[in-house]
Structure formats: C-alpha cells, structure tokens
Design brief:
Structural class: mainly alpha
CATH superfamily of the largest domain: MFS general substrate transporter like domains
Number of strands: 4
Number of domains: 2
Helix content: over 70%
CATH architecture of the largest domain: Up-down Bundle
Number of helices: 20
CATH class of the largest domain: Mainly Alpha
Order of helices and strands: EHHHHHHEEHHHHEHHHHHHHHHH
Radius of gyration: 25 Å
CATH topology of the largest domain: Growth Hormone, Chain: A
C-alpha cells in the first residue's frame, strides 16, 4: 500500500506505473474473492448435465443420443460465439459485458432447470454456452488488467486453482442433492426434482459474478487503449482509494500516456465489426503459411485429439457408473470382477423401463467423481514443478503415451481399478492441455498468438462435439471401439509431439 505514496509530479505515467501507484490491497482482495465463482462458472455450465443424465434420462425419457445433445450443447454455443465476444470486448469494454453476460447466463441456466422436455433444455444449454464463453474469458483478461505486474502471475494462477476447486465442489454438490431424488409438484402436475435444483444451483456462480460485476470498475487498460484518459485516471483513483483508504485527490498520478497506436487517428477510435473480421481473417491466413503452418496444424491436432479423448470419458463417467451399478443390482450375472465393457454391454440388455424402475442413484458415483477431479488439482501442482526441469513437449509426449496405455487397459480391468485408471488418464490429459497452451505462448509471436489460441480452443471444442456423439452411438454396442480409438489417437499424438520444435518462431515483420 505504500507504493502509492511517492508523487511523480506533473509527468505523465504509463499504464504499469499508474497501476503500481494505485497500490495493492482491499480492491485486489475483492477481485480475488470474485475469482472463486468466476473461475467455476464455465466448468459448471459445461459439466452440469453429465451429473444429472442418469436420473434425468428417466424423468424426461432420454435416449443415448439425446444425452449426447445435452452434453454437447454448451460446447456448440462456445464454438459459435467465441469470435464475436472478442469483438464486443474490444469495442464495449469489460465491465458491462461481464455484468450482462454472467446475468443472462445464470437466467438461461435457471430456465434449463425448469425445462420439461429435451429440446427446450438443449436450447437453453446451447444459449448458455454462447453467453458463458465471453464473460469467462473476459474476466481472465480483466484480472491481468487490474493487478500490477508484480502480482499478475499470482492472480492468474489463483484463478486456475479456484477453477480446480470448483471442479471438486460440483460433484460434492451432486452427491448432496441428486441421490435422494426428492420431487415437488409445483403446478399443473409439473414435478421439480432435486436434480433440477442441482442445475439451478449450477447457475449461481454466474449470478453472483453478474451482480458483483455491476459494482466493478472498467478496465483502465481498455480505457487507455481507447484514448479515454480521464476515465482511466478516475479508475486508478478509485482503486487507490479502496486500497489505501486515502482520498483520491492524494493519488500521485495526474496525467496518463495515450496507449492508442500512433497510426490510429482521432476519428478511428472504434473498429467496425467488418474491420475486425478482416483483421481476424488476415491473421488466420497468416497461420496457413510458413513459418507457422506446420507447428500450428500439429498443435491443432494434439489439442483436438487430447481434449476429445479427455471429454469422451469425463462427460460420460456418471452415466457409465450409474448404468453398471443399476445392472449389477438387477442382474445377478453381472460381477464387479468383470471388465468395464462387459458390464456396460450387460447393462444394455435391460429395457429402459426396467432400468428406470430399478434406478437408485448410488452416492458412491459422485464420490468417485470427487476423487477423479481431486487428482486434477494435484496435477496442476505437479505440472508447475515439472516445468522447472522438463520441456513442455517432453511432458506432452509422456502424458499422452501413458494416457494411451491407460485407455487400452480401461475396458479390460474390473471396476475396482476403473476409477484409479480414469483419474490417472484425465489428470494426464489435463496436463497435456496446459502444455499445448503454454507451448503456443512460447512459440508464436504476439501478432498471431491470440488468433492461434482461439483456433486451438475451437479445435478442442469441435473434438468434444464429435466425441460426444460417437460415444453415445456405440457405448452399449461397441464399447471396446471407444477405447481402442482413443488409444490409437493418443499414441499418434505422443509420437507426433516428438517432432514439435521447441524453438520460438521468428519473422522478419
């Protein structure tokens, strides 16, 4: 807090200097507090349906393909909206979009919880994917724009930790709410069950963020980049006052540098959507030419294969555990010592009516998910330590190779080892995801970095869509094929990663 005490007189200050003079204190702690629901918002939106599918499938009569649509809907929305959110954020700022985006997403989540049939629920989850894609990414950028350089990495790392903690809290909430399967009749015979309450509560992080964002300041960096220096100065003064408790008149900075590019004229402060679209197209076209194309395509393939393999298993685990548990309860020929795919195939012999009649959600299902997600939290700590000693591409090779071995073993082992192998596989593939993002940041120049990051994330989400539909189509009939396919894909990725150059790409321009 003492960092804001030395005046710099009438000299103009750049962004980093002005932010450091605003100090570090209560304002930053409040933003970190808001990071808890913000970091959980997107994972809760995308994973919520997977936890309720076993019981929801009986309540609203869902087929496997129907369940795939529900699992995939948020990702489809994210793919559609990713580019538009970037334009809106660069045009209208961070604070307003955070407020409206999070609030609308929470309302869509609540509407999904009340949807009586499949397609209204798919629609609301699809729209929720559209809405959460922007605010979640914008908030991560917002953190880096209101924390001084000294604490910036800490703030971003904290967001990652909170996201992992959120992944633990959601299955814990499912464990608490879903197994009792209580139902209340609200109106005209409409039943509202505990699994719907779970969907309702899964929208609460977005609701909290939307309300809290209404009281946040605009990003001072955005204001400076738009030439709105007086507004940016007022934001710095507000941060200074909250952090130090002193009047804003004592803030030591009185003038700010103009952060707009020199080539930008006063009449060209706002880019049109068409201009942004053209620039995005140019940057994408640049990636399709040397020296970018070879490494870009390889990273796209690694991301698509690893993320689709990860989610092909993760999003269907509650359904798989539930189907096997129900089959073992109603079928005396099914044993825990049998392989995963044998038990899953046996479960398909029950008619939907018989399955729902014998449906009892075992709380152990969600305890397994808590254990699996807990391993992901441990993975982040291990990854940070490994980075000091091992190249990212080496980590990528090992994680995908070991994941491939786990995948080929999964259909053959008994249920006693399925949870352990699954936790290992998903944790390693999470580490692969971190490696891909870190590699892009290291290899590609700033001019194309944001574009390739967006395209890489899009490849992953496209992979999730196809993986979901594929798993739903053959899960009960050709279960082994799922694991053989993912094994082959991960093995090819492991070999391909050996050819990924670790030398940063340099260009003449």
């Amino acid at each position: 807090q003492k960092e804001g005490s030395d005046s710099i007189g009438n000299e103009s200050a750049d962004f980093e200097t002005a932010l450091s003079k605003a100090g570090y204190g209560k304002f930053n702690y409040l933003i970190l507090l808001l990071t808890i629901p913000a970091a959980s918002s997107s994972p809760w939106v995308t994973a919520a349906m997977s936890f309720v599918l076993p019981i929801a499938g009986c309540d609203i009569s869902l087929t496997s393909i129907d369940k795939a649509w529900l699992n995939s809907a948020p990702y489809a929305g994210m793919i559609l909206s990713a580019f538009f959110w970037g334009f809106l954020s660069d045009t209208y700022g961070r604070q307003r979009l955070l407020t409206y985006g999070f609030l609308v997403d929470s309302m869509l989540g609540i509407c999904a919880s009340f949807s009586p049939t499949l397609w209204p629920m798919v629609f609301f989850k699809f729209m929720s994917g559209i809405m959460i894609c922007g605010p979640y990414s914008i908030f991560m950028a917002y953190i880096s724009e209101v924390f001084m350089y000294k604490y910036r990495n800490f703030a971003v790392s904290t967001a990652g930790i909170f996201s992992a903690i959120g992944n633990l809290m959601q299955p814990a909430l499912a464990w608490l709410l879903i197994p009792p399967n209580l139902t209340w009749t609200l109106w005209d015979g409409y039943d509202y069950s505990t699994w719907r309450i779970f969907l309702f509560i899964s929208s609460v992080p977005s609701l909290i963020c939307g309300i809290a964002s209404a009281f946040c300041v605009e990003s001072p960096k955005f204001l400076l980049e738009k030439g709105r220096k007086e507004e940016a100065l007022n934001v710095f003064k507000t941060i200074y006052t909250i952090n130090t408790g002193k009047p804003n008149s004592t803030y030591p900075v009185h003038k700010l540098h103009d952060m707009r590019p020199q080539a930008c004229s006063e009449n060209e402060k706002e880019k049109s959507f068409w201009k942004v679209l053209q620039n995005g197209g140019k940057q994408t076209f640049m990636l399709l030419k040397p020296p970018f194309i070879y490494r870009a395509l390889l990273l796209f393939f690694i991301q698509l294969g690893s993320v689709s393999s990860l989610n092909a298993i993760r999003l269907w685990l509650p359904q798989i555990f539930s189907a096997i548990d129900t089959a073992s309860t109603s079928n005396s020929t099914t044993s825990e010592d049998q392989g995963l795919c044998v038990q899953l195939t046996e479960s398909a012999k029950n008619t939907p009516e018989a399955t729902c009649e014998n449906m009892v959600i075992n709380p152990d299902l969600y305890m397994n998910m808590i254990f699996i997600n807990c391993s992901g939290l441990l993975t982040q700590a291990v990854y940070v330590v490994l980075l000091k000693y091992v190249q990212k591409k080496r980590i990528m090779t090992v994680t995908t190779a070991v994941s491939a071995v786990c995948m080929i073993a999964l259909p053959m082992v008994s249920m006693k080892f399925v949870v352990l192998l699954t936790a290992c596989t998903l944790s390693l593939l999470n580490m692969t995801f971190f490696c891909v993002i870190g590699t892009i940041v290291e290899l590609f120049p700033t001019a194309v970095r944001a574009t390739i990051l967006s395209l890489t994330m899009m490849c992953g989400r496209i992979g999730i869509l196809f993986a979901n539909i594929g798993v739903a189509s053959i899960m009960y009939t050709h279960c082994n094929a799922i694991f053989y396919t993912t094994f082959t894909l991960l093995a090819v990725i492991a070999i391909s990663s050996l050819f990924l150059s670790a030398k940063p790409i340099t260009t003449k321009n």
